[in-house]
Amino acid sequence: MADIQLGAVESRFADIIGEYEPVTSGDVVKMAESSLGWKKSTTFTVLRRLCEKGLFRNEKGTVTSLISKQDFNSLQSEQFVEENFGGSLPAFLAAFTKRKKLSEAEINELRRMVSDYKED
To answer: What's the CA gap between 68 and 71, in Å, rounded?
Structure first.
C-alpha cells in the first residue's frame, strides 16, 4: 500500500464511502449514481480497484475502510514530498511559502508541531 495514487474522481468516490461507512454496496451504487452520475458497473469497477489498492474492503455486501482518511492523507503527503522535493520537508515549505504567505496562526501551529515532534 506504500504507493497509492488516486485520480480526482476516485478520490471523491473514496470520500463518499468514507463519509457513510460502513455502507452497503447497494447504497454505494446509489450514492455514486446521484453524486457522480455512474452506472452500477462503473461503481463496482472503481470499488474493486480501491479494494485491490488496500483502501477498502467489500465483504458480504458491506464496504468499510482499511485506512483512515487522515492516514491516507499522510501517506499521500509523504509521497508528494518524496517525489517532488527529494523527501525534504524544508524544501517543500520553502517552495510553498514562496508564493503563499503563512498567517501568524499557521506559523504558530508549525512551531507547535515541531516542538511536539522534538519532545517525542
So the answer is: 5
Check whether domain 8-69 has CATH 1.10.10.10, yes or no: yes
Q: Cell for 109?
A: 501551529
pLDDT in tens, 6-58: 788 888 899 899 899 999 999 999 999 999 999 999 999 999 999 998 899 99
Contact call for residues 33 and 39 (beta carbons, < 8 A): yes
Per domain, the residue ranges of the chain are: 8-69, 88-120
Q: What phi and psi values does residue 47 have, to the nearest 5 degrees?
A: -60, -45
pTM: 0.68
Q: Which residues pair with 63 in a beta bridge?
A: 23, 58
Q: Are 4 and 71 in contact (CB under 8 A)?
A: no
